[in-house]
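ok here's 3-oxoacyl-[acyl-carrier-protein] synthase 2:
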Amino acid sequence: MQVRLVEQRRVVVTGVGLISPVGIGTEETWAAILQGRSGIEKITLFDPRDHACKIAGEVKDFRPEAFIDRKDIKKTSRFIQFAIAAAEMAVRHAKLAMADEDPHRVGVHVGSGIGGFEVIEREHTRLMEGGPGRVSPFFITASIANLAAGQIAIRHGARGPNLTCATACTTGAHDIGEAFRILQRGEADVMLAGAGEAAVTPLSIAGFAAMKALSTRNEDPECASRPWDIGRDGFVTGEGAGILVLETLEHAQARNASILAEIVGYAANGDAFHTNAPPEDGSGIRRVMELALADAGISASDIAYLNAHATSTPLGDRAEATAIRQVFSANPDLWVSSTKSMTGHLLGGAGSLEAGLSVLALRDQVAPPMTNLETEDPACTFPLVLSQPRAMESRYVMSNSFGFGGTNASLIFKRMP
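and the structure:
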C-alpha cells in the first residue's frame, strides 16, 4: 500500500479578536490583564439572590447592534454574538480583505462548550407557560453550538471548512489546534478559529454550584478567582470569546500581512479517568504538554511562559501543578500565570481567549500577571508571575486547556523574527 506524504505547511497568527469580562476588544482586554484588573462582580444578567454563587465575570456594556443588524439580533444567542464580534475584530486586526480571497480557501473552526444556554432556558419557560406555539422559530438556530461558526462564515463569505468543537473547557484550544491542522494539510489558506461562551444564566450557575465547582466568595468577588492559592474554593464563571486569524505562512507573506506569531505545536489527548476531575498525578496533562513539545520539535527548556489552565479548583490546580513540575523540572526560567484570576473561567471560550493572550505576550515580550494569590499551594515549585507583568525574552510560549470528560489540549506559539 502506498502512503501519501503531504508536506506540512507553516501556520501563523495574523489577527486576534478578544471579548472578555475585562474588556471589549483585543487591546482593551490585554491592557486590563497587564494592569491586573478584575472583571468579576455580582451577577447582573439575572437575579442571583437564591443562588449559592452570586458572582461572575460578565462582559459589561456589550452592544450586539454594533456588530449585528438589529433585525438579526433575535436570531442569535449571546455566545454567537460574542463570537461574531470577536471574529470581526480579528479580521480587522489581520487586515484581511475577504474580497481579495478565494472564499473556498477560507474556513471557520469556531465552537462553544455549552451553546445558547440563555435561549434554551427562555424558550423552555415559554413552552411551559404558553405551550408549543410560543416557542420562537429562531430557537434552534440561535442556540446550537455550530451556529457561531455558521454565522461567522455567512458574514465573511467563508466557504471553506466549517467546523465546531464542543469539548467543554478545552473547546477554544481544540478549535484553534484543529484549524492549525487543516492549514498544515493545505486544505485552506485562512481559518478563523476559536470559541465563544455565555453561560452566566440561572440554570448554568445553579448546575455548576450543585457540583460544588464554583466559588462562593460572594462578598469579595474580585478576589474570588484565586488559582493556586491554598484558600481557593472553586472557579468563577466568565463569558466572552476569543477568535484568531490563522494563515499559512506562504499566504500571509504573499499579502504582506503583519505576523504576530507562528503556531508550531498542538496536542490533544484524554485522561480516561473521571467526568469532572483529573487524576491526582496529572498524567494526562503531563503527556499532552509533552506531545505538544514533540509536535513543535522543541524541548521544555525552550518555553519561557506558560498560560496555565488553572481555574481555581483544588483538584484541578494541583494536578496541573504536578504536571508542570514534572515536564519543566529542568527549566528554572519558566514563568507561569493563570489569567483566569481576572477574567474568571470562560468555559468553552477559555482556551481561545488565553491563546490570544499568549500570542500578545509573545508579541510584546511580557508575561501577564496572576492576581489573588496570598498563600501559595505547596504543589507549585515553579516561578509564578504575581501582581505585575514581567518582561521576558521569549521565543516560545505555551497555553494549556483541560475540560470535563478528561479532554486536554496544549498549544505552542513561536515568536517570528
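+1. The chain has two domains: 11-254, 266-414.
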